[in-house]
Amino acid sequence: MYQIEINCMHQPVAGKFFLKSWLILLVTILASIYACISWLDAPIAFYFLKYASPLSGLGRTFGSTILVSAEITLIVFLSLARILRGILPLYAKALFIACCASVSAYAANDFVLKLIFARQTPLEFLRQPDSHVFHFFQGSQYSSFSSGHMVMASAFAFAIIRLYPRTWPPLTALLFLGAILLVIGDFHFLSDVVAGAFVGGTAGFLAGELWCQHTQLHAHDRGI
Asked: Which of 28, 37, 97, 161 is the most exposed place for a label (fewest CB within 10 A)?
């Protein structure tokens, strides 16, 4: 059984390679965010203003409170199943890791990053334009940067992708769809979504990577 689990996981990524790749990606993302803030965010938000009201119901249906509650419920259910049955199937373990990564990344984003950057939402900006993009250390959970929904979705998706790489096409497509809806509905600026994808993707990939290293370590201890 344990051998099957190890074969389902890719080998852990080398630490130096991961750090180098992550730093390169970080620089790319920061440049993209700068470009979005400088030239794209406001025009795109203004262009899609007409779609804000029609898509407002979508925001209520998939509000962060509802999504977090669903993930926490799944975490509790899987925890109880593990206690009662003594074992979880591989896909259930992957879901557990992905949900934990998603909720943790969302909490860090909403209670740390949003409070630090304190950016207006697109609708607030369009009602009362502000010359300052960020009001550092004056934010709240309702600030716009970075997108909590994108952080949550990316962390979940990247954890699953790390554990089951063949899932990347549908999960990536869903992430792009979610990102497009967040921008079209004026829930977030484009730069908020880019930042949220990076933060969540980092958290999700790290969660999956730590699990891969955990399984490899235990396999080595058992002589597998």
From this structure: 28
